[in-house]
Amino acid sequence: MAITLRSIQGDADKAQPKPVRDLESELAHAARFVRQHVIASIYRATSGHPGGSLSCADLLATLLGAEMNVWPNAINDPARDRFVLSKGHAAPALYAIGAYHGFCDRKQSLNLRKLNSPYQGHPHIGDLPWVETSTGSLGQGFSVALGMAMGLKLQRNPARVYTLLGDGELQEGEIWEGAMCAAHHKLENFCAIVDYNKLQSDARNDVIMRLEPLAAKWRAFDWAVAEIDGHNIHEILATFRRVGATHGRPSVIIAHTVKGKGVPYMENIPAWHGSVKLTREQAEDALHALGANHKEIKDYLDVDAS
Amino acid sequence: MSMQAEAPTLIGSSGDSLREAFGKALSSLADEFKNVVVLDADIAGGTGVHHFRKSHPDRFLQFGIAEQNMMAAAGGLAAVGLQPIVTTFAVFCLRAVEQARLSLAYTRRNAKIVASHPGLDVGPDGGSAQALEDLAAFRAIPGMTVISPADPVETALATRAILEFDGPVYMRTGRSPAKRVFGDDHTFEIGKGKIIRDGKDVTIVACGVEVARAVEAASILSESGINARVVNMATIKPIDTALLKRCAKETGAIVTAEDHNIHGGLGGAVAEALAQTRPCPIEFVGVRDTFGASGEPEELATAFGIDARGIVDAAKKVIARKKKN
What we know:
The structure holds two protein chains of two kinds. By secondary structure, chain A is α/β, with parallel strands linked by helices. Chain A has a single domain, classed as Thiamin diphosphate (ThDP)-binding fold, Pyr/PP domains (Rossmann fold, 3-Layer(aba) Sandwich). In chain A, about 40% of the residues lie in helices and about 10% in strands. Chain A has a five-stranded parallel beta sheet with strand order 1-2-3-5-4, with helices on both faces. In chain A, helix 2 crosses helix 4 and helix 4 crosses helix 10. Chain A starts with a helix and ends with a helix. In chain A, about 55% of the residues are buried. By secondary structure, chain B is α/β, with parallel strands linked by helices. Chain B has two domains: about 150 residues, Rossmann fold (3-Layer(aba) Sandwich); about 170 residues, Thiamin diphosphate (ThDP)-binding fold, Pyr/PP domains (Rossmann fold, 3-Layer(aba) Sandwich). Chain B has 13 helices and 14 strands. In chain B, helix 4 packs parallel to helix 6, helix 9 crosses helix 13 and helix 10 packs across helix 11. Chain B is globular and about 60 Å long. Chains A and B meet through helix 6 and helix 7 of A and helix 4 and helix 6 of B.
């Protein structure tokens, strides 16, 4: 666990010593930061996908905060674990967790979806080397991550590869090509996480194209399957530990989540899949619901991020 | 002209196809390029990489009949420092164009796509298997280098060149036994066209299997007193604009010849380059925006007008246009 509690504290916390929080509180703190940052950057961009960025905040916070061996000052270290955001439209959440851990600047990363900003609407390695690959076309990040896992195994490199998938993304045929391939090649260093928030762009998954029985599908492809509450950090942590010990098979964590989690007016409403424009009032309401105080809200929405 | 003496006559069918030449070259280069891994979608015997599978089984990665996953996974293999060589038929590369676009080109990965079975050269398998759109599709991807070598000798040299090159490349090989155009002293450089027979009346710019037909066409043209220059344009992207300008200036008329749709391939690249630098009359020899059919490659070349006779006719036509100007 290279991301230590030290780095989780963040710059603001360094000034005055605070009581040491336990790991789960730290991760919850990181997840809250991610959600606030997501709302602020999407408000400032006047477009972006809030629903699916909020649903994966706890997963990302736990993954980068406790599970993965990654270091912001060694982003090319061959020994690092790799993370690929296959659901690339959740870029605001990736930038937020990256900012939290020092992979990018907290202020600058609010400058989302703007000309000349490296924080494009979908992550691009050409702009941000730490994002590992460019995503935004559903299904591809999964295959790229699989290729990384295959290559690392070939090189006898013990690093692990993680990828976060959207649930609608599982409708891409490429996912099931990759699922067959990863099991065939016994990629035990490969872990996929499904952000199963049940909603996709236009409507519920089961209206657009039914995914169930989802766990059974992955089991049938010979993956080790865990099904969890994707907002329960204790459960996420425990599950990562368990799947890390999987032998001879890739693992998938089906994380049941709530789209728009943390912002009451967004939760479970497909319209917030995005790409949406948030009004000032909506942004303030959301940040308030996410525990930001008056000054923090003003900073998030008005600070010069260029 | 001074180069006339060096003008090649066809060495004849070597019996080797470009895919075989590629497969053998790749296998023999594998010990030198230790980070090379080969990706296959269950057609190693068809693409020529069965040689590599035999010589370097530990670096041969099987993806099954699933080209989209294979193409994008190459991006991941390149990301961890390997040099992936994606191999399949040209027509199946088309189904993974978007994976090549995002996960290889946009990400600037050092990955190579080597496609066998392009064009009418596929023969009896028929229209569904004959990729006539691949050069256009891959040429349209920013940062993608596109190569189509002419014969087994050049294919072997191009194989080394793409392994030495850092960046995404799409290279065509070929299914059918290929005529040898070049001797053992041939050289190859990515991005450079080469005058392989000099002439002053017209320049025939060709790639792939059409180079042998262009050489044949030049011989036929010489019988009626037409002095045709032949350029082997093995790199379609980036196109050798300097050489094209020179040929336009010195011969005043161009014929392009490719086993591909006349839209978007070599002809398109040549026309784009010359339209902006030194416009001159151009005729396009290629499949005229239609699909292929079953038949033997030479039968098909005649039926679709891309044989030596088709090039001869186009040359005469473009010379007539030049004179009218």
